[in-house]
Fold this protein.
Amino acid sequence: MNPQDLLNNPQLQQNISPDKLQFLMELARNNSSNTSNPQEMADSLKTASESVKNQGMNFSSTERDLIIEALKQGMPPQEQKKVDLLMQMMKNMRR
């Protein structure tokens, strides 16, 4: 994903703090090539999650959902479905 897409996404701008948005932009710059493959995207998000915890930041489930939707925008429909399935599996595992 192009980091500029994060700044242009009104849902992210309105619903995520500037500090978190800055973190996401850095993540997008460092991992823009990983968003075309759901497994690579999941791995990147796991690494990002660990980094967030180390920085004392916490993303709500709503914020995480917005981020996933923003990341999926650049994917073909078939890959988006794979991400949706992967996210559903992860949610089921947390129960």
Notes: Residues 77-94 form the longest helix (18 residues).
